[in-house]
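Lecture 7 notes: from sequence to structure.

We start with a single chain of 151 residues. Read the sequence below before looking at the structure.
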Amino acid sequence: MDEELYGILYPYLTDKKVQQMKQYMQHGSVSTYEHCVQVAVLCFLCNRMWKLGADVETLVIAALLHDLYLYDWHDRDGGLHRLHGYRHPKRAARNAARYLGVNVAVQDIIRTHMWPLTITQIPRSREAWLVCMVDKYVSLLESIRRRKQKG
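Now the structure, written as tokens:
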């Protein structure tokens, strides 16, 4: 991991709530923690490579915490997680604010990362657009890898 990126993320990577994401599966055998780290790394690299001018700290913190919902959405739970795709961005943003004290810009990026599924929560900054797009790309790769492992 790049020194600049690691320097920004270290306090979050070592946090108990962020570490808790290792307990939950995201796609296939990829934990929510691994997924979020991959999104953060790729956001950082895309911003640098394409010279997008995003605020690096805001970008990578939001990318790391975008799925800080802290439950296994695959569990049968009487329907509580039935609308996970629609509901988890707000929960993750709330958790990031509550447990890690992130600012409003980071919360907004987290809240909008599932657009267009969450049709009214439109990304409004270059950081939000980047997290939204990179999350979809990483999720697609994880899902394809999962299918290949099954077949």
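The chain has a mean pLDDT of 91. Keep this in mind for problem set 3.
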